[in-house]
Write a structure and sequence with these properties.
With 221 residues, the chain is an alpha/beta fold. The chain contains nine helices and eleven strands. It folds into two domains: 118 residues, NAD(P)-binding Rossmann-like Domain (Rossmann fold, 3-Layer(aba) Sandwich), CATH 3.40.50; 83 residues, Regulator of K+ conductance, C-terminal domain (Alpha-Beta Plaits), CATH 3.30.70.
C-alpha cells in the first residue's frame, strides 16, 4: 500500500481551503493553520490537524512536522509580507518542498529567490487555460513537463483522419512525438503507434514536444 502523503497548508482562505479539501478528498493527510477560528472550524472535517494560530510565527511553525511532510503550501491572501514571512520560516525549518500563492510579479521573484519550488497565480492560470480552451476547443489536456517541453492531448484533426502516422509525419512537420492514441468511444489506448497506424474519427492523440512546436500543432484542422 502506498504511503499516505502529508501536507501543511498555511492560510485557509479561498485558495488554501480549496487545496485542503481536494488534498483530503485525494486521501492525503492535511494539517491546516489559520489565525481565524471560523476558517479552521469550517474545514476541520477535512483536516488531520486543525490549528488556530499565526502561520507567520516561527515558534508556531516550529511545532509542526515541516521537515516530514511532502510539501508546505502557502496561501496568505493578498498580504505579501505574511506570505514572505511564512515562506522564510518554512524554509529555515527545513521544508522539502514549498509552493506559494503569488500576489504580484515582484512577489513571485522574491519567493523564487527564497527557494520556492513553484509560485502559483490561480486567477492568471485559470484565465489562460480558459482562453486556450476557447481558442483551441480540440485541445483536451495540456501538461507542462519543464520550461521547454509539454504533453498535449488533442482530438484528431479532421485533416489527419484516414491517414497513417507515416503519411502525416508530425515529427517532421511540427517537431512533436506521438506517444499514444486513444479511442474516445471504447477508451482503447494504443501506445507508441507505428508508422502504419491509421488515424480515425473520435480519437484523441497524445503528443510531446517543445511549446513553440505544440503551438503550431494547435492550429492544425
Amino acid at each position: 500500500m502506498a504511503e499516505q502523503k502529508q501536507f501543511i497548508v498555511l492560510g485557509l482562505g479561498t485558495f488554501g481551503a480549496a487545496l485542503a479539501r481536494k488534498l483530503s478528498a485525494n486521501g492525503c493527510r492535511v494539517t491546516g493553520v489559520d489565525a481565524s477560528e471560523q476558517k479552521v472550524e469550517e474545514l476541520k472535517e477535512h483536516l488531520y490537524a486543525a490549528i488556530i494560530g499565526d502561520a507567520t510565527d516561527y515558534e508556531t511553525l516550529k511545532q509542526l512536522p515541516v521537515q516530514a511532510v511532502n510539501a508546505v503550501l502557502i496561501g496568505m491572501g493578498e498580504d505579501i509580507t505574511k506570505s514572505l514571512l511564512a515562506t522564510l520560516h518554512a524554509k529555515e525549518l527545513g521544508a522539502r518542498r514549498i509552493l506559494v500563492k503569488g500576489v504580484t510579479e515582484d512577489h513571485g521573484k522574491i519567493l523564487k529567490k527564497l527557494g520556492v519550488e513553484r509560485v502559483v497565480f490561480p486567477e492568471i492560470e485559470i484565465a489562460e487555460e480558459l482562453a486556450d480552451s476557447l481558442t483551441w476547443p480540440n485541445i483536451i489536456e495540456f501538461l507542462h513537463i519543464d520550461p521547454e517541453y509539454s504533453f498535449m492531448e488533442l482530438s484528431v484533426p479532421e485533416s489527419l483522419i484516414s491517414k497513417t502516422l507515416q503519411e502525416v509525419n508530425l515529427r517532421r512537420r511540427f517537431g512533436v512525438w506521438v506517444i499514444g492514441v486513444k479511442d474516445a468511444m471504447t477508451a482503447e489506448l494504443t501506445m507508441f503507434p507505428d508508422g502504419q497506424f491509421v488515424f480515425g474519427a473520435d480519437q484523441m492523440v497524445l503528443v510531446v514536444g517543445r511549446h513553440k512546436d505544440l503551438d503550431r500543432l494547435r492550429e492544425l484542422t
